[in-house]
Amino acid sequence: MKFNSILSLLLAMCLLTSGSLVLAQDQAETPAEDAITPIAIEEEILEWSDYTVKAYTLSIWGGSFGGATYLDNKPLAERSILTDGAGDIIAYDGGVLFESRDTRHYDAAIKEVKSGNAFGGRIGIYIADDFHLDLLGSFASGEAVTSMLYTEDPDDAPNESVRVDVDSDPDFKVYKGGIALMYNAKPATMYGIVPRLGFGLGGVINRYSQLEDKTAMYLEGNFGLTYDLFDNMELGVQADLTTFGFEVDELGYSKMVSYVTYSLGVSWFIDRVPEQVRAAHLSELN
Prior knowledge:
Blueprint: H1 2-29, E1 55-65, E2 68-72, E3 89-90, E4 96-98, E5 106-113, E6 116-126, E7 131-150, E8 162-184, E9 193-207, E10 214-230, E11 233-248, E12 253-271, H2 275-285
Antiparallel strand pairs: 1-6, 1-12, 2-5, 3-4, 5-7, 6-7, 7-8, 8-9, 9-10, 10-11, 11-12
């Protein structure tokens, strides 16, 4: 009886030990559900063509605004006939400066925007080696002036008339914003100076101090020259020819007008392509 008890105890201990060994082996062969198995990820190597935007440029400039003439009435002939209101000249305060009956002494009105100062900025987005899209904004100030031929004695010969300023708005301003496609003509580089050509469009606001704003869409041509000052900075001069339809109250329709702006500024180059990728691309071009 005692021997059977000892044998039963030994058998139970063997079964317990065997079960523990099997359980340990199963746990070793079966990974835990929350265990993370490392996976080797090969880093993707990007090439020049993989970068949509190659670089950015930030430019600021100041310069001269050329102004323009937007009304140029010719002197009335002897047989000219004006209907009521046809010869009225609008003042810059919104009233009528001269009515048709005043043309014996005042004639041939000219309205123009005098030259002034301008400044602005550009954000360039390089989409290729030498092509970039520029988002631009500018501000210019000048003086709007109305002048007319004045004849003290209408019976005198026409050559006795003199042109005098009869009205002005010294707070005339021009706001412009748009987009331009620019090309750096590096094949035409001379002495480190790179020509730049461009074409753009956008909107222009001609703002008087009291009269209603004259707004329009414009087309613009650009020509400039740039020179590298440092690795990431260049100096540039540029001429912009902006053409649009200027709404003229005296005519009752819009007249095509062109502004010319001359500017001098600096640009900062912000590269978006790793140095080794750009170097490899330049080596392929050469």
